[in-house]
């Protein structure tokens, strides 16, 4: 290229460069991604999450007079072998009881239903968990007063059947009676106290599952 041509090219380059104005960069902060709740490693709620529990954490509360909800959750569903089992009627439930319940539902309830009734369990009906009250006919606080107990009243199957403790314990078919006694026996291996309709009239319509210091199954 001739020297004159080179000079013309350089002149044009400088001229064009002078017409370009720099715009300062505007930094736009990125919105933080939506995150799932996190739980400290090794805690009960982490174990419950790992076991397939679906729940909401509940803030600790001390109501006085021996009533409190500490490290409690509202348990909505738990994992079974082939899906999830929902739980209805539950209020605050201590995480340790929820963790025991999750294992009981998967291994002691759903599998028993498949074996004895030929259908998986899709939901479990309860009469509640936390209640600031005494043991019936006693001046001693119930395990319900610290959310350490759950009362189970019925099991709903995928084929539409409902196996209730009230009707099925003595009045159900042989397979229904056998199923209810199997789940009660399985609960005795996980909970410290299990009370069924054979215990007394108060428990005619539910299984009482409790974690406490003593062991009693009836």
Describe the 3D structure.
- The protein is globular.
- It is built from five helices and twelve strands.
- The strands form two sheets. Strands 1, 4, 5, 6, 7, 8, 9, 10, 11 and 12 form a ten-stranded mixed β-sheet that branches. It has a two-stranded antiparallel sheet with strand order 2-3.
- The N terminus is likely disordered.
- The chain has 218 residues and is of the alpha+beta class.
- The longest helix is centred in the middle third of the chain and has 23 residues.
- The chain has one domain.
- Strand 2 and strand 3 form a beta hairpin.
Question: Briefly, what is this?
Answer:
By secondary structure, the chain is α+β, with helices and mostly antiparallel strands. The protein contains five helices and twelve strands.
Order of helices and strands: HHEEEEEEHEEEHHEEE
- Whole-number tally of structural domains: 1
Q: How many strand elements?
A: 12
Number of helices: 5
The helical percent reads: 25-40%
Query: Given the C-alpha coordinates, what overall shape results?
Result: globular
Mean pLDDT: 85
Head-to-tail CA distance between termini: 105 Å
Q: What is the CA-atom radius of gyration, in angstroms?
A: 30 Å
Biggest pleated-sheet summary:
10 strands, mixed
pLDDT < 50 stretches: 1-36
What class, by secondary structure content? alpha+beta
Q: What amount of the residues lies in strands?
A: 25-35%
Main attributes of the structure:
alpha+beta, 12 strands, single chain, about 220 residues, two-stranded antiparallel sheet, disordered N terminus
